[in-house]
Fold:
Amino acid sequence: MSEIEAMASTVLSPTAGWILVLLFGLIWIGLGVFWGRRAKNLEGFMLAGRNVGLALGAATAMATWVTSNTVMLAPIYALQMGVWGMLAYATGSIGLLLFAPMAMRIRRLMPHGYTAGDFVRIRYGRPAWAVFLVISVLYAMSWMISMGAAAGLLLEALAGIPFIYGMTIILLVCVIYTLVGGLYAVIGTDYIQSLLILIGLVVVGAVVISKVELDAVYTHLSVQQPMLLSVLMPVALIAFFNNMFFGFGEIFHSNVWWSRAFAMRPDAAQPAYTLAALFWMPVPVAAGFVALCAGALGINVIEPNMVGPFVAGNVLGPIGAMVVFVIVFCSLGSSIDSLLAATSDLLTEDFYRKMLRPNATEGHLRRVAGFCIIALGIVTWVTCLVVPPNLANILFISGPLVGSAIWPIIGGLYWKSANGTGAFVAMLAGSACGLLSYYILGWFTGCVVGSAVSLVVMVVAMKLKPSDFDYALLDESEPETEAAS
Amino acid sequence: MIALLTGMAALSANAAEGLAITSPESGDTFAEGAFLLKWEAGDSTDLAAFVVEHARDAEFTDLIVRFEGRDRAHFVSGMARGDHWFRVAALNESGERVAVSEPVQVATSYIAMSTVWTLIAIGSVVLAITVASVVTGHARNKREAVA
Structure:
C-alpha cells in the first residue's frame, strides 16, 4: 500500500467515489446539453450571447477561481508558511477585486471583442500580440494540466479511484459539455457548482471549527512548527507578494476572465467580479486553517497536496467525506470547463481567424472551436500521463510569465501613451528576469521580480516614445465572415 | 518459553538493524523549512508503532515527539532557522522501544532577511502603483462613460 493510499483509505470508499463521479458527470453533461441549446451562433457559443447577468456572472467567476489548487495548494501554503501562507493564498481575491473595474472598462471599450488577444493585437500590434499569445497559451496549458493531474490525484486519494480513471473521466465530462454548450454550458454548470462549493464549505467549516480547540492548535504549532506562527517567516513574507502578483497576472491577462467580461452585461461586469472576490476570499483561508489543524487533531501529514481534503474527511466522517468529494469535483469541473472554453476561443479567434482564415464562416469557426476543445482535452490528458504530477511546479513555472503581462494590460487599458514596443519588451524582459529569479532565489520570488521589471520597462518606454492611442480603435465591428451560417 | 523469548529478541534485533531514515540525508539543507521524513523498518511485523523524535542538538536533549503511529513518513514543516536532528524509534505491542534509527542532521537556511526586505520593498511599490493605476483609471473611465 502506498503512503497516499494509506493516508486516504478511511476517507471514502471506491464504490461511493465511483457513484458520485458518475452521478455528477452525468448531471454536468445533462445540464451542459440543456443550457447549450441556446448557443445557436458563434457569439452564443463563445460568449453566451453577451448577456450574462449579475448572479450568473458572480457565480461563474467565483467557481472558476475556486480551483483544485485552492483545495490542494492553499493547505500546502498554510503547512509550509503558516498564517502568512494562508493569507498569501487569499490575496488571489485582490486580483478579482482589481479586475472588476477593469472588466467594466473592457466591456465599454470593446463591446464586440472576443478575446484578450484581440485587445493586445489592436492596442500594441503584432509583435506584442505574438508574445502575449505564447504566454497566454503556455499559462492556460499549465493551469489545465495542473487541474487534470489534480483530478487524478484527488480522486485517487479520496476514493481510491486510480489516477488515470479519475483524470480521464473529469476531462471527458468537461470536454463533452463544453463542446456541446460552449460558454452557456460552462456558466450554467459553474452556477450550480459554485452553490455546491459554498454550501459544502460552510458545512465543512462549521463542523471543523466545532470540533477543534483553537488553544490546542496554537499550542501544537508553537511547539512543533514555531515558524508557522512567526510574523517574520522569510519565505512567507515574499510569498505574500508573489502570490498576489501571480493572481494579478493570471486574472488580468487570461482569456478565462476576459471572455467572462465580454459575456457579461455592461452593468453586471464590475459588481459580478467584486462579489466573486468577496465570496472567494474565505475559501483558501478555510482550506489553510483546516491544514493547520492537522497536527492538533493527531493526523499525520504524509502528502501535503491532500492534507485539506484528508483532514476534513477524517474530522467529518463518511458524510463529510462525501461533501468534500463533491466540493473537489465541482472545483475541478468549474475550472477545467472554463479553461477549455476560453483557450479554445483564443485559439479559434487569435490563431485561426486572425492569422489563417479571416473570412471563415461562423459555422466553420464553430467547428474549429469544437476541434480546439477536443484537442486541448487530448493534449492535457496525454501530458498528465507523461509528466509527473507535481502541481506546484507545473503552475508556478508560469508565474513569472503572467507576472510580466500585468503592466501591458493595465497600461494598455488606462495609459494612452503606453506603446507596443514597451509592451513587447516588458513581457520578454519581465519573463526572463522573473524566471532567473525563480531559479536563483526561489519559486516565491519569480512573480514579484517579473512584474517589477515589466513595470519599469513599460514606464521607461512610455517616457522615451509616448504613443497617443485612440481607444475608439478597440471597438471593432462584428468580425467579417463570408456569411453567417 | 526460552525459545520464544529468544525468537522475540531476534525479531527485535532485526528491527533494530532495518530501522533507518531514508529521506532526507544527513547534512541536507532546506530553504523553506519543510521536507518529507521517510523511514523503513525492514520486513518486521512485530512493530506496533513508530515515534519521530526531533531535537536541536545531537544528544536529543529537550526532544519533541513529532509523530507516533504506524505510518512510515511524516511531513515536517515550520522549522526554525538552524540545525535540527531527527531519529525514529520503533515500539512493540507493549509500547517498549525495540529499535532506534541513526539520527539525521538537517539544517534550515531561509533566504537572507536583507533579500526579503528588498523584495518586500519592491513588491510594496509595485502594489501601490498597481492599485493607484486601476483606481485612477477607473475614475477616468467613469468620467468618460458619463461624457
Chain B touches chain A through 46 residues (CB under 8 Å). The longest strand of chain B covers residues 82-92. Chain B is about 35% helix and 35% strand.
